[in-house]
Inverse folding.
């Protein structure tokens, strides 16, 4: 039997790592993937990873870090990897598909345009009705003086309608601004394993902005499904919109101290409550039930631990 038949995915990755002069600790620091998961990948013990979906995600990130083509490597060893063709995987792929997101943005844009157009149409209809009423009254009178008065009234009514329209828009903007400024985060409880948060006065479709001061792996989940994941740096950022039907969102941070999160433009200071409890933890896990956020880590080094933070909208 030839030597090529003995080549495995784990051996390929290990050889590439050694050739680059990287240790497992180096990879853990750069990818934010826990060392025990890196060892499991090299030994092909995929059952030790968090789930089938993360097997392929972690392998691709490992391969890219050692200058291998992650996508090509997954294709080459596809038969040796756990099957991910479940409904959950399909849903995750659809959520992360650029075409799907583009179609959703088009639908949202049409909805926003429709909401903006309806008030304008209503104002136009009201003005037309008033003008028609004035024209009917002027026709019945048949006097030139009445016609002059009607013209004056028409101008007055039109001006009044414009002022009311401007006043209505100004009031709407003021109400929206007050709601945005009233948005607040509240820490409900804190335990040795995590913390619970809620956000009051969030918009119907909260906009989330993610940025980092250094390399940090992050994933975002809604209703138990990952809608985005990736590694951010100081020069990159990511923005996403939470569907109106969602009641909460869960963040998994590989380097929480380096992460910055804004919701509807307001900074979410989750680190102030999670950093203390996370530093003393020795195992990695995240549990989200209803409005509860549990944050734990697998290392005393807060820069490499994974934290899970759930934010519930009220």
């Amino acid at each position: 039997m030839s030597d090529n038949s003995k080549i495995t995915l784990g051996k390929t990755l290990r050889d590439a790592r050694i050739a680059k002069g990287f240790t497992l600790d180096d990879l853990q620091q750069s990818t934010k993937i826990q060392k025990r998961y890196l060892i499991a990948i090299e030994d092909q013990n995929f059952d030790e990873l968090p789930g089938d979906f993360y097997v392929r995600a972690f392998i691709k990130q490992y391969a890219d870090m050692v200058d291998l083509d992650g996508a090509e490597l997954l294709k080459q060893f596809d038969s040796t990897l756990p099957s991910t063709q479940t409904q959950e995987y399909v849903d995750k792929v659809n959520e992360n598909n650029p075409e799907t997101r583009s179609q959703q943005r088009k639908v949202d844009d049409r909805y926003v345009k429709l909401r903006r157009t309806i008030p304008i149409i209503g104002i136009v209809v009201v003005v037309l009705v008033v003008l028609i009423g004035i024209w009917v009254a002027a026709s019945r009178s048949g006097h030139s003086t009445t016609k002059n008065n009607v013209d004056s009234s028409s101008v007055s009514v039109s001006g009044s309608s414009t002022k009311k329209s401007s006043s209505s828009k100004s009031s709407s903007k003021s109400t929206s601004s007050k709601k945005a400024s009233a948005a607040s985060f509240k820490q409900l409880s804190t335990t040795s394993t995590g913390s619970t948060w809620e956000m009051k006065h969030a918009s119907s479709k909260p906009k989330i902005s993610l940025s980092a001061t250094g390399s940090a792996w992050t994933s975002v989940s809604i209703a138990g499904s990952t809608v985005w994941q990736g590694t951010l740096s100081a020069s990159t950022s990511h923005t996403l919109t939470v569907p109106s039907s969602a009641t909460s969102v869960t963040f998994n941070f590989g380097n929480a101290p380096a992460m910055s999160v804004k919701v509807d433009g307001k900074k979410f200071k989750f680190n102030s409550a999670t950093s203390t409890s996370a530093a003393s933890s020795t195992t990695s896990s995240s549990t989200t039930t209803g409005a509860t956020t549990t944050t734990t880590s697998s290392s005393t080094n807060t820069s490499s631990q994974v934290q899970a933070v759930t934010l519930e909208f009220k």
Residues 192 and 277 are 6 Å apart (CA to CA). Residues 98-141 form the longest helix (44 residues). The radius of gyration is 29 Å.
